């Protein structure tokens, strides 16, 4: 009976995708709509979150398959990526450093403590890896999860409109920008655009995640030494 929550989640997402496509409004992101709908249901019917979490555990087993699926557009564009690996590598390295530093500076700007700074530094990395990085440098898991979610939502909803305002229409640039700034949600948004954007976003998602695991602890140590 409890696994009906998995069915509820899938149905909520399906309806959200349909509504988002029908209205064609960028602010009505399917993920945001699904989250809002499920929160409303949990609150109205007073469903304990632990029950919902247990009931949706079967869906967690598909996360690995979803990550593997991201490699498909990456494989299709691999020859082109290989020809430009130096430029792409530099952009991803720079993007990783900027993403980490922006989270750090945001926390410091509002007087955040060490654990808050540590939690927000990996905000642009996909959730599982972000929690590992935050844990290694002493960040709060809950706050880190919120930071990752907010970064993903902002990037997936506002990323493309902002890039259009900046007159950036190149699919590779759009893909890497969203992959660097908003991890899996940005990549999902790129899949709605075209395969080329999705492949570059997948590349950014993977590479920036790996780079962040090495760079974030180093930047955190420097931040503690200079600013705290």
From TrEMBL:
Keyword vocabulary terms for this entry: Hydrolase, Membrane, Transmembrane, Transmembrane helix
The keyword Ribosomal protein appears for this protein: no
GO molecular function, one term: hydrolase activity
Signal peptide positions on this chain: none
Domain of life, per lineage: Bacteria
Cellular component GO terms, alphabetical: membrane
Transmembrane parts of this sequence: 30-47, 59-75, 87-109, 141-163, 203-224
Claim: Transmembrane helix is one of the keywords in the record: yes
Main location per the UniProt record: membrane
Record's bilayer topology term: Multi-pass membrane protein
InterPro entries to which the protein is assigned, alphabetical: CidB/LrgB
Compartment(s) of residence: Membrane
PANTHER family in the record: PLASTIDAL GLYCOLATE_GLYCERATE TRANSLOCATOR 1, CHLOROPLASTIC, PUTATIVE SEROTONIN TRANSPORTER
Protein name: Putative effector of murein hydrolase
């Amino acid at each position: 009976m409890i696994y009906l929550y998995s069915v509820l989640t899938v149905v909520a997402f399906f309806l959200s995708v349909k509504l988002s496509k029908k209205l064609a409004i960028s602010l009505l992101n399917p993920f945001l709509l699904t989250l809002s709908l499920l929160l409303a249901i949990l609150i109205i019917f007073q469903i304990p979150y632990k029950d919902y979490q247990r009931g949706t555990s079967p869906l967690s087993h598909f996360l690995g398959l979803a990550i593997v699926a991201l490699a498909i557009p990456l494989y299709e564009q691999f020859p082109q990526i290989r020809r430009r690996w130096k430029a792409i590598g530099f952009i991803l390295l720079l993007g990783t450093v900027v993403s980490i530093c922006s989270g750090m500076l945001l926390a410091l700007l509002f007087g955040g403590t060490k654990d808050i700074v540590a939690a927000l530094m990996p905000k642009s990395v996909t959730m599982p890896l972000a929690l590992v990085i935050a844990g290694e440098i002493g960040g709060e898991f809950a706050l880190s999860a919120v930071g990752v979610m907010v970064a993903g939502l902002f990037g997936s909803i506002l990323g493309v409109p902002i890039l259009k305002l900046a007159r950036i229409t190149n699919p590779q640039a759009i893909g890497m920008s969203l992959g660097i700034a908003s991890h899996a949600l940005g990549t999902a948004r790129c899949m709605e655009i075209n395969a080329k954007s999705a492949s570059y976003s997948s590349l950014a998602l993977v590479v920036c995640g790996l780079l962040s695991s090495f760079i974030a602890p180093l930047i955190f140590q420097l931040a503690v030494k200079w600013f705290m």
